[in-house]
Amino acid sequence: MSTESNKDLVRAYFVAFRDRDEAWWDRFIAPDFVRHDPGLDYEVRGPAGVAKLGEVLHGGLSNIEMPIDEVIAEGDRVLARLRFQGRHTGEFQGVPATGKAVDIVVMDYFRVADGRLAEHWALMDNLTMLKQIGAVAA
Q: Residue 129: CB partners within 8 Å, gap ≥ 6?
């Protein structure tokens, strides 16, 4: 795949994640996909792992949007700089719903193999999110 195709694949991932598109995940997430994410206390592997992550985030946050600011690609690697936005309308990380808005910076780095996402390194500004929902002092 070309670097442009890889960039398009990553852009499509965020739409599929927002929409919880399991058919897309089954087609474009490699069976041995792994997400490296120091902010999670569980593994995200394969399409089922992405579905679990979706359940957690969509369970605590609604009106999720992920506007992309920039996508850079070289070879089989793609870096996306974006925002994660939503409203805290369900329990999230042990915090009951507050109705407060969430808007944080995210850096997602992917490896593409055979037209599928194979690995994902995620860095989210979890501290700011916890401040925004009132879980920690601002």
A: 84, 102, 104
Question: What pTM was estimated for this model as a whole?
Answer: 0.93
Residue-wise pLDDT for 81-90, tens only, equals 999 999 999 9
Over the stretch 36-58, which tens digit does the pLDDT of each residue have? 998 888 999 999 999 999 999 99
Q: Domains in the chain and their CATH numbers?
A: 3-82+107-123 (3.10.450.50)
| 118 token code pair | 């194979």
Sign of the dihedral defined by the CA atoms of residues 136, 88, 110, 30, in that order: positive
Q: Quick one: which of 63, 90, 81 has its CA closest to 123? A: 81
Q: What would the two tokens of residue 106 be?
A: 């995210």
